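Final report, section 2: Outcomes. Of the targets proposed, Pre-mRNA-splicing factor SYF2 is the one most frequently requested by collaborating groups, and we therefore present its record in full.
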Amino acid sequence: GSSGSEDEARPGTAAAAAAAAQKREERLRKFRELHMKRNEARKLNHQEVVEEDKRLKLPANWEAKKARLEWELKVEEKKKECAARGEDYERVKLLEISAEDAERWERKKKRKNPDLGFSDYASAQLRQYQRLTRQIKPDLEQYERLKEQYGEALYPTSDSLLHGTHVPSKEGIDRMVADLEKQIEKREKYSRRRPYNDDADIDYINERNAKFNKKAERFYGKYTAEIKQNLERGTAV
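The predicted structure is given below as tokens.
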């Protein structure tokens, strides 16, 4: 009887030992996985620390420079593709620009060079000079020829004798004359004195007050139009 009970107990004991071994193996597998994940996380953290240290050592505007270089590379590739197909790059670029982008760039350009109005004559003269110089399109081929012809003498110093050493070309003279005529035509169209309307209502006491009233009308006229009409009709509350 005892031998029979021992035989019945052995399979149960063996099964329990097998289950315990399986659980232990499962725990060891999970432990190895966690260990590998921890090592991987430690490695990734170390790489991130190294990369962050590199970024901190770079110049402050490195990201902007990198983006600019990447954009220039794309532009060069696009120009080569257009040249290979026999197309004009500027025309292709304009065809790819949407109306919204064009309007946004135009607004950005206006913000970059805003018209601040008249402050003093020196500022007005400087603005005029900058506007005129932006319109100048230099002849680089002629410049290279002059450089080969005169060498260092092309760049005058305080000891250089400039009078009579330069003779402007006919094209340069014609360009200057055309520009001066354009400036004269523009000045003739512009009049600083505004026309005076004798029939307009006099709602000011002096010139300064008249200017203030015009400004107020320009900014708030649409909001006060109904009130003015009621006052004129005598129906204001």
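The two ends are 118 Å apart (CA to CA).
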